[in-house]
Amino acid sequence: MRHGDRGNLKKSFMLLAANKEPDDLMPFDGVIADWLLPQDCLYWSEENLAMRSQTPSQALQYGRNLIRELAVRHRTANPRVFGSVLTGRDRADSDLDVLVEPLPETTLFDLGGLQDALEEALGVRVDVKTPMDLPPHIRAEVLRQALPV
Q1: What per-residue confidence (pLDDT) applies to 55?
Q2: What residue spans define the domains of the chain?
């Protein structure tokens, strides 16, 4: 799989951005392929395989390092969570609401790529927002309540 080939990402590997070396990583679904550079693909560790089909709060519990790493790779800063995960009302069909600060060089492709990468890596739906994406009537409240990943 080459950089940019996302069609078979789930069938290939997933990278856990938790300071793991390739020897500590395992293939996803038993697929055998060449190890890729961290920027090229995502690997799964054994503990992250258990995250599939869980609630967003459970995915967050195991994926904090991964969220922070992917935010940096997609040229954003200060990832925070808000919404149902904070109130404890999330369910398996809920999404994980992530608030990030865009950097001067951040593009819409970075934000969309971050959302796709987080969904792929965590196994839950993710909604990535910047403060200016939030409706003005709830922006101040969300910014006040959002907690750092």
Answers
A1: 93
A2: 1-49, 50-148
What pTM was computed for the model?
0.67
Mark the ranges of the chain whose per-residue pLDDT is less than 50. 1-51
Write the burial class of residue 121 (CB in 10 Å: 0-12 exposed, 13-18 middle, 19+ buried).
buried
Q: Is 50-148 in CATH node 3.30.460.10?
A: yes
**Residue 41 phi, psi (nearest 5):** -160, 170
Counting runs of H as helices and runs of E as strands, what totals does the chain give? 5, 4
Work out the angle between the directed axes of helices 56-73 and 108-122 (0-180°, nearest 10): 140
C-alpha closest to that of 27 among 38, 19, 35: 35
Closest CA to 24 of 35, 32, 33, 12: 35
Does residue 79 contact residue 100 with C-beta atoms inside 8 Å?
yes
Instruction: Please tell me the number of Cα atoms within 13 Å of 14 on its side-chain side.
Output: 27
Residue type, 14: M
Q: Return the pLDDT at 101.
A: 98
The first and second tokens of residue 57, run together, are: 């709060």
